[in-house]
Amino acid sequence: MRAFSLRTPLGELAALSNDRKGPRVLALHGWLDNAASFLPLAPHLGDVELVAIDLPGHGHSAHLGAGGDYSFAGSIASVLDAADALGWDRFRLLGHSMGGAIASLVACACPERVERLATIEALGVLTEAPERTGARLHEAVAAQRALKGKHLRVFPDIDSAVQARFAALRAPGAGLEPELLRLLVERGVRPVDGGFVWSSDPRLTLPTLVRMTQAQADDLLAGIECPTLVLFADPPQPYLPDAERRRRVAALPKGRMEVLAGGHHLHMQQPARVAAVIAPFLHQE
Length: 285
Prior knowledge:
By secondary structure, the chain is α/β, with parallel strands linked by helices. The chain contains nine helices and ten strands. Helix 1 packs across helix 2 (about 100-110).
């Protein structure tokens, strides 16, 4: 895929394009990943015009300015700015994990622009009980203040960074082979004296200031008007058990759900099988 960049009001967004002609598909990666997340899948999607962006603060994209907030709701503007910079009035969205959550918000917020929505391992947003609002805000602000002055870890080489990311992803269902992790790591580091550091904004690791309630999240799903395909891995992630993800899909006006055995990054681990499900949907009128 060809690397290029998009100038937007919030800063420059790095992107990858397959330079094909067909339905326009904007791809959004997961938390602390980057556009390279879609490299294994791209060759299997057929003739779609696929553009995968590095969301703000990730990969090669610019970080938000001082005081910037990496909330899902705030990311709506970044996605729409990317589409505007591409000259796309209408387009389809493909999102993995965090990218799927952001894509859900965009589809609800701008039904006139989103033709189809395909998500992998995500639908809607994580929720929280209203009585946790104050405690979450307190914890998040305390974490913000504590982050100031912390130094980035320097890795002597790419292999060391791959090993560190591999160790961090060894939770059940989250494992990703080192050779696939290398795709993400090579796009997710920058050189410094003595080696490499993560290029992602450290503020991305901070707790979310405010989460939606269940009722708000359900209203969001009900507002997604476009045809929607949701692909989940089996076994499910602990934070989104099977009963809850099926309930969410049922709340969509035009939604359907597919399940494949695999890990959280199944679009990287099993790109051909994932494309066999997603590609026909993205090509439909």
